Amino acid sequence: MEFQNVICYTFCILFLVNLSFVGPANADVYTVGDDYGWTTGTNYMTWAAKYNFTVGDVLVFNYVKGQHNTYEVSEDTYRSCDSSTGVLEKYDSGNDRVMLKEARNYWFICNIPGHCLGGMRFGVDVKVDNSTVQSNYNPVPASPPSNGAGVPHWQWEWACQLVAFGFWFLLSY
Ligand SMILES: [Cu+2]
């Protein structure tokens, strides 16, 4: 029984460590164009292709206010650069923070005349972040119970010990 507890506590610690990473890991902040910022002369499709964007990430558009702007647009408008239709959101603060809230394609352009056709446009394919769900389940031992007591019972015991240890851990520190 002692040995089983040690194993259990080891998994509990791994579980808690995993939990502590759930928040920050989900919310990456990306500065569009990296050091170049949001300006002419940069290929933003190349920039966007470097990263895997997930729900909760934030895009930051940095530029001199008035020289550029940020329009979230439909795919058609992204392709045509004709902003007479298909504009979903407009930003012009010079430090626009756009949270990618949904798993879908987002399309962005600069609406200063000529800038979109000149290359200030890109799309990102935002995916659901599965990594934290998977990592939370990793600590569950894959090997079957050795005492033949039955899987459900063993898993209940394990779950109870985990909760007990979790409380003990939180109260003692
Ligand atoms: Cu521009």
Structure description:
This protein has a 4-stranded antiparallel beta sheet with strand order 4-3-6-7. With 173 residues, it is of the alpha+beta class. It contains 5 helices and 7 strands. The protein starts with a helix and ends with a helix. It is 38% helix and 18% strand. It has a domain at 26-129: Cupredoxins -  blue copper proteins (Immunoglobulin-like). It has helices spanning 2-26, 44-49, 75-80, 131-137, 151-172; strands at residues 29-31, 58-62, 70-73, 87-91, 95-99, 105-109, 121-125. Bound molecules: copper (II) ion (CU). Copper (II) ion (CU) is lined by residues 68, 110, 112, 115, 120.
Measured by DSSP, the beta-strand proportion falls in 15-25%
What can be said about the biggest beta sheet?
Answer: 4 strands, antiparallel
Silhouette:
elongated
CATH arch. level architecture of the domain at 26-129: Sandwich
**What's the rounded overall pLDDT mean?**
79
CATH topology of the domain at 26-129: Immunoglobulin-like
Strands of the largest sheet, in order across it?
4-3-6-7
Order of helices and strands: HEHEEHEEEEHH
Would you count the extended β strands for me? 7
Provide a count of the helices. 5
What is Rg?
24 Å
Structural class: alpha+beta
CATH superfamily of the domain at 26-129: Cupredoxins -  blue copper proteins
Which residues form runs of ≥5 with pLDDT under 50? 10-19, 135-154
